[in-house]
Write a sequence for this structure.
């Protein structure tokens, strides 16, 4: 048995392309349909009600495209609205980025102290702490919102003095707290990996949820016998949709995807709003 | 003759409250109806097409509230979409923030070199340079986008090392260019006045468009005999509407308004989207 339908992936913007990159590394034969809500990003500072609304709209749009699996590649939506989305999409598996990242961190912490960095909304919900607590309640979790990291990445400032100073401002307290793992709880943060590692030192391991989310998707599709039968999947066979063709979107997409994006289609916000 | 209808003011978020503050200082008897599109802010990095669409939606919503004047208190929308909005609102005066700021700078520059700082969209359109060029084509205008300033203000970092380093990064080139006036072409920037002045030195004058926009509104209403007949205007008699009750909106509103906001009503994005 096999399933030739595409995998749906969405994020508030282009950051979720880090998950797409890992999906292609593990399953080069799959087709992806990606949605980035670039007309309304970033979601991370909005109210939970609005994040839920936007997340459900994004998910419903992809559901209407006949996908076999939905990946919520946005930490903010995964933290605030994953259950609401799962309730509405009963027919196909729905994966968020929080649980795979939490599992990977639990397997790696020797000190039993994990740090989580992300947007204001992600950290405020305590979603990673809850996910980790369900696996091992004895592990301590420390969250820290780093709201400047997204605009720094969006401006291409992945390695300069301002970024290093911001990293020190946010992360020195993580060192003092004695964590030995930090989950990068936002799809933008892998692009700051070098600056973050340089700030916290090599004793602390950084965990990028994107890789673990892609692994979970592979495990589920394998268990369901739902991998694609084709060998003609990959970038060229996939679709990339955004709600706004923002300035520099091609360079930004390339930075997240690690590859030139073949083409981006713009959809109207009206097609999303219910 | 007089006109008791309110003045409509909108911005992508809460920054436009700096204009409201100045309106109340000059015309304490007026009532304001303010709209902040906090579910979709910031506009500054989006495409011109999307900024036009959002700006027209915001303007139309206020028009439907029976206002006597519309103030576009958003530099990005004023730069990209003012003409489109004026074409649709033929019955009442429409004021943007660009022209009043440009006029004030022209009257003040001795060196005939003016700097303009703002969002990516504001600077890219060259709206201030065009407005200044129409008044005096011999004046040189230098624009610089400062995309980190909005998130720095939103995080309350109006006076720390990161903000000072960002200010140096963006503004040292203005000093080298020999400008003697810098227009703060974004409603968030007045909150960074001290850091910016400290960076560029006291030889350079900073111009906040908010004050000059309020003066223009007063001039027009006076000329039209359309000032409010009441003495019971002001904050308590005004309405403040947002599309999302984002985190910390009360503190942020207070920072921009310079006063406690009496109440904020949330409207649904569906009421705005046409």
């Amino acid at each position: 048995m096999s399933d030739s339908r595409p995998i749906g992936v969405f994020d508030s913007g282009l950051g979720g392309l880090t998950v797409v990159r890992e999906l292609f590394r593990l399953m080069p034969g799959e087709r992806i349909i990606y949605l980035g809500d670039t007309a309304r990003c970033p979601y991370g500072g909005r109210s939970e009600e609005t994040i839920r609304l936007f997340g459900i709209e994004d998910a419903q749009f992809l559901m209407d495209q006949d996908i076999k699996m939905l990946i919520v590649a946005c930490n903010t939506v995964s933290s605030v609205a994953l259950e609401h989305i799962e309730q509405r999409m009963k027919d196909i598996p729905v994966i968020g980025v929080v649980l795979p990242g939490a599992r990977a961190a639990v397997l790696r912490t020797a000190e039993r102290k994990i740090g989580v960095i992300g947007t204001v909304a992600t950290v405020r919900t305590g979603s990673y702490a809850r996910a980790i607590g369900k696996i091992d309640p004895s592990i301590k979790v420390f969250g820290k919102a780093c709201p400047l990291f997204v605009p720094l990445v969006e401006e291409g400032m992945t390695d300069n003095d301002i970024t290093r100073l911001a990293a020190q401002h946010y992360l020195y307290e993580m060192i003092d707290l004695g964590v030995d793992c930090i989950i990068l709880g936002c799809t933008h943060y892998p692009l700051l990996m070098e600056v973050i590692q340089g700030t916290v030192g090599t004793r602390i391991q950084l965990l990028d949820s994107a890789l673990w989310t892609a692994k979970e998707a592979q495990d589920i599709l394998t268990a369901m016998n739902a991998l694609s039968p084709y060998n003609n999947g990959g970038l060229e066979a996939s679709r990339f949709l955004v709600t706004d063709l923002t300035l520099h979107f091609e360079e930004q997409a390339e930075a997240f995807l690690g590859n030139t994006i073949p083409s981006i289609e713009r959809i109207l916000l009206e097609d999303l709003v219910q």
About this structure: Chain B has a mean pLDDT of 94. Chain B has two domains: 7-96+211-271, 99-209. The beta strands of chain B are 7-11, 32-36, 69-72, 94-96, 113-118, 140-145, 181-185, 205-208, 239-242, 265-266.
